[in-house]
């Protein structure tokens, strides 16, 4: 591995809860200790309430000049590094989101294809392959609650170090 640089990543979440009619609300994270919350509903149904329980955190890695990827599996929570990347330890965490709404209702959850992150120095990195641990047709439980985890792959290069942050829009709709 050539000269490595330290890369620490913390991903925030921007949440969208929307209905097919287009009603939506957005919450921008104000701080790491606050939960992100948003609600939206459609006529006659309990409004959706979306809360971030845990932010996605890729942990600490060092990237050589060849770059590589850091992946967090949404089902197992396992962090894997590939390419010219070395795991420096620390805690890697899947993102955890709780949705509350109409008991038994089927919902759709959408994550973007890519998310660009930025460090305090203006350097950028990209997260791709965002995925959840949800099945094909997720439903709120009889208590009106659904909790899911998500992960993704961070593409890194050895060109810049720092804490990379970004917002991941999570869209939840009644089916």
Q: How would you sum up this structure, described in words?
A:
Keywords: Signal. It comes from Sphingopyxis soli. Residues 1-25 form the signal peptide. This protein has 175 residues and is an all-beta fold. The chain has one domain (5-174). The chain is built from no helices and twelve strands. It has strands at 5-18, 24-27, 37-40, 48-54, 59-72, 79-87, 95-100, 107-110, 114-118, 124-132, 145-156, 162-174. Strands 1, 2, 3, 4, 5, 6, 7, 8, 9, 10, 11 and 12 form a twelve-stranded mixed beta sheet that branches. The chain starts with a strand and ends with a strand. Residues 1-37 have low confidence and may be disordered.
List segments where confidence is low: pLDDT < 50 over at least 5 consecutive residues: 1-37
Helix content: under 10%
The overall number of domains is 1
The total strand number stands at 12
Could you state the order of secondary-structure elements as H and E?
EEEEEEEEEEEE
Structural class: mainly beta
Write down the overall geometry. elongated
Task: Give the number of helices.
Answer: 0
Report the major sheet.
12 strands, mixed
The end-to-end span amounts to: 48 Å
Cα-based radius of gyration, to the nearest Å: 17 Å
Oligomer: single chain
Look at the structure and give the mean pLDDT. 78
Percent in strands = over 45%
Pfam families: DUF4402
Protein name: Resolvase
Signal peptide: 1-25
Keywords: Signal
